[in-house]
Amino acid sequence: MHLGAVTTLLLALQFMIFIPTVVSDKTKHIPSDTSKLDAWIATNIREYQQLISESKKDLHSPLDPILVAAEAEVNVIKVRKDGTGDFKTITDALNSIPKGNLKRTVIWIGGGEYWEKITIDRSKPFITMYASAADMPSITYEGTAFKYGTVDSATVAVESDYFMAVNIAFVNSAPMPDGKRVGAQAVAMRISGDKAAFHNCMFIGFQDTLCDDRGRHFFKGCQIQGTVDFIFGDGKSLYLNTMIQSVAKGVGVITAQARENVADTSGFAFVHCNISGSGDTYLGRAWRLRPRVVFAYTYMGTLINGEGWSDNLHADRDKTVYYGEYMCKGPGATPSGRVKFAKLLTDEEAKPFLSMTYINGNKWLLPPPNYV
Ligand SMILES: *[C@@H]1O[C@H](CO)[C@@H](O)[C@H](O)[C@H]1NC(C)=O
Questions:
Q1: Residue 229 catalytic?
Q2: From ligand 1's centre to the CA of 112, what distance in Å?
Q3: Which residues form the signal peptide (predicted)?
């Protein structure tokens, strides 16, 4: 190798090493200013094609290789109730997808109510349920804990990885628990797969509406309605710009985060959300030993109980919960009456919950496909 080649090689190496990271530290953390949120999203959730061309320049890929391969060729299946699509039901569309699926498969769903109870098992990753925002379909069923057990009461349960839903309403239409009927909990959506994203979706139910069961998840522009424990489970999730609506008549509880072991990294981060509705509603209760829940830059209406959080009558959990609030607003966010075991986070404490890194989103998070 002559000197010229060595110089070229050194220059090339230097170029590789000193190339600025695409997401700089300045744009890494979610801004406090709501008007800057869209710009942050555009910087942090980029199109597949853009990521691929960037990764060619950087000589490394930010995305999981299995996802890069899956997105290279996208398969679209259409579901329409009127029979003009490939299938009339979502269940039939799902059944047409082979086990061991390795391709992004978009199930395009026309408007209307689909009365179906759906489980996507682990053998079918890379599925997207997509609908138009102007003609949002709902998937509705009435499963209850009494009939199926809580986690299997879900109208839609997703156990596979790399799931995405866009503009879909997930509904459990079982009646509101009255305190007399046993097993009236009714899940609308259970997400148990890793690396799932929900854009502009609705989750409608009463008790246990959304089972954020396990894995890393992203929710943006969603609406979640319920009464008690209506966002529960052991997931590690970032909820952005999401409407949380309590329809509780008496005591309501938003989260029952299920972290139990010190080594478990799960937790719910709610950032730029809006909590409204009725009831005497708690932000969370310590259903399990070490729940981790943070609300940041979130508006809290008058429905929020002044104490904010409940240890679920387990005083020993006061030492093990991680309940944090950071720069929240509104009448429900007043810190003076809060329980001792809740904390107002410092900038440093809040930071881990305010970036894509929390859910390793740079490895897998993609924007919704832009179909018409
Ligand atoms: C929060 O949502 C309620 C109910 O939709 C709405 O009236 C209110 O303006 C929202 N507040 C903020 C700060 O976005």
A1: yes
A2: 27
A3: 1-24
pLDDT single digits (tens) 140-191: 999 999 999 999 999 999 999 999 999 999 999 999 999 899 999 999 999 9
Q: Ligand 1: does its nearest atom lie under 6 Å from the Cβ of 297?
A: no
Q: 300 C-alpha to center of ligand 1: Å?
A: 9
* Whole-number Å distance between alpha carbons of 305 and 275: 12
Q: Please indicate whether residue 274, judged by its CB atom, sits closer than 6 Å to ligand 1.
A: yes
Ligand 1 site, residue 299, Cβ cutoff 6 A: yes
pLDDT digit string (tens) for 257-313?
999 999 999 999 999 999 999 999 999 999 999 999 999 999 999 999 999 999 999
